[in-house]
Design goal:
about 35% helix; alpha+beta; single chain; six-stranded antiparallel β-sheet; Beta-Lactamase
Length: about 160
């Protein structure tokens, strides 16, 4: 498969996700390495949507540990139930945060981040990682992002 995305120019957010999802399905289907898939998914999403920061945190022992990402330096370890990522891990559900400064206990890895969506990656019903996406704009994420990013998280196995 070609590593070029060839996404539709000027497409809506939903159209872009619809074009990207099958490409990511093909890309990850033939690759058994978890880190490689996380890296390519992060890169493709960053390229498609120009997110401020995007990446994975993997559950290792009792912490989320930074995995493949695109963007500026990030927090390396996050405790269970702490910040948006740790809360999404604890609750096992997608969290959309319109204004990170209003989220109790938000961990500011970068002060330019304004809104965030965090999605659990599950294997056999257990959260094994989270996908963290930050924007430098308030209220950037919505149910369209949640719907498609959850489908993309299902590709990480």
């Amino acid at each position: 498969m070609s590593e070029d995305l060839y996404l539709p120019y000027g497409a809506s957010k939903e159209e872009t996700y619809q074009a990207l999802l099958p490409r990511l399905q093909v890309l990850t289907a033939g690759e058994p390495d978890l880190i490689a898939n996380m890296a390519n998914i992060s890169s493709a999403l960053k390229e498609a949507f120009e997110f401020f920061w995007i990446g994975f945190y993997r559950v290792i022992d009792d912490r989320l540990v930074l995995g493949p990402f695109q963007g500026s330096l990030a927090c390396t370890r996050i405790s269970y139930g702490k910040g948006v990522c740790g809360t999404a891990w604890k609750e096992g559900r997608t969290l959309i945060v319109p204004d990170v400064n209003q989220f109790p206990g938000h961990i500011a890895c970068n002060n330019l981040s304004r809104s965030e969506i965090v999605l659990p990656v599950k294997k056999n019903g257990l959260v094994t990682a989270v996908l963290d996406v930050d924007s430098d704009r308030l209220n950037h994420f919505d149910e369209t992002d949640a719907f498609y990013l959850e489908k993309i998280c299902a590709l990480v196995r």
